[in-house]
Amino acid sequence: MKTPRTKLSRVPQRGSYDQATIHAILDEALIGHVAWVTPDGRPAVIPTLIARDGDDLLIHGSSASRTLRALKAGIEACVEVTHVDGLVLARSAFHHSMNYRSAILYGTLEPVEDVARALEIFTEKLVPGRWEHVRWPNRKELKATAVLRLPIAEGSAKIRTGAPVDDDEDYALDTWAGVVPLRIEPQAPAPDPLLKEGIDLPEHVRALTA
Amino acid sequence: MKTPRTKLSRVPQRGSYDQATIHAILDEALIGHVAWVTPDGRPAVIPTLIARDGDDLLIHGSSASRTLRALKAGIEACVEVTHVDGLVLARSAFHHSMNYRSAILYGTLEPVEDVARALEIFTEKLVPGRWEHVRWPNRKELKATAVLRLPIAEGSAKIRTGAPVDDDEDYALDTWAGVVPLRIEPQAPAPDPLLKEGIDLPEHVRALTA
What we know:
The structure is a homodimer. By secondary structure, the first copy, chain A, is of the alpha+beta class. Chain A has 5 helices and 12 strands.
């Protein structure tokens, strides 16, 4: 949604307020960067696993953690998510850039009561299909987990794709220019050294590297 | 440096205040997440290219950008950098985790006068060896670039590595457990469609995918 805060003033053609675009950027990201203002008025930001539940972005942590107690319901937050998709090598130093997809959300954190459901969403975010294979949380674990949601309402996306853009006269230079794409690639799964014998790699884990 | 703000209260054995550890995490990261408090007291965070210059972390942007004007010298900032190294799949939903290396710095942004040198540092950060091949910034470009530094002084690192840690009784379960490592891998360079004919891929770009 376009508001004075989310309105993109720099290179606005890279911006988007489209909910589907923002959702896609959030869904592909494991980590979000959650910023808030401390009680003494100073900035703070932490990385944390994110998962989307419809029009809410979920974050969670230990109920005992200092951060989760700071990030209590009612506090204002800004959450940023970024994928770095490539290095953009121009002919001029000045026009070097990166290809990226980022989303920035603003809002107020609200408590989530159904912690069990949130843990299912987080587990499935980490590895789709994992939930049915794991030992589900018990009462003590649910009590030890705090979950908060940020409504995905006031936010924007910003995306750069494609080749470098140089000044007209620089296209005559003999400098190589182009893009080096970057991709996050899952590697061969490493079984827990304490894994019981005879447990094969399950399909939902194999699928990550397929 | 350990201060009341950087002191790690959760899982402190994962923490470090070692400058070399923090430098290594910063040096491997292209992107940092810069948080500050807006004039009306609200949190804001943006992703931006970072580069280290000795004991300073450098950020830059267009002198005309709203963000860079907000992030002016003298403002307090918190910068966070995170590498996600792997998915940690435990037998219990509760003990699922990620392997990661993160650094969080606090401090006050200060102006950098030598913009040309900073642009060299940023260019070399993006692609080592690139600077000698590109058209260097002219006066107009230097004027259009704002550079700020955050002293790397008040900060901490947090690192998780290795296998999942489950509750004792869960090791008897038949659930596969282990780690799926994640790695950022540069892909084959894509030449600018407008690249002059006869310009081969240079060694400094080829080295990225070697």
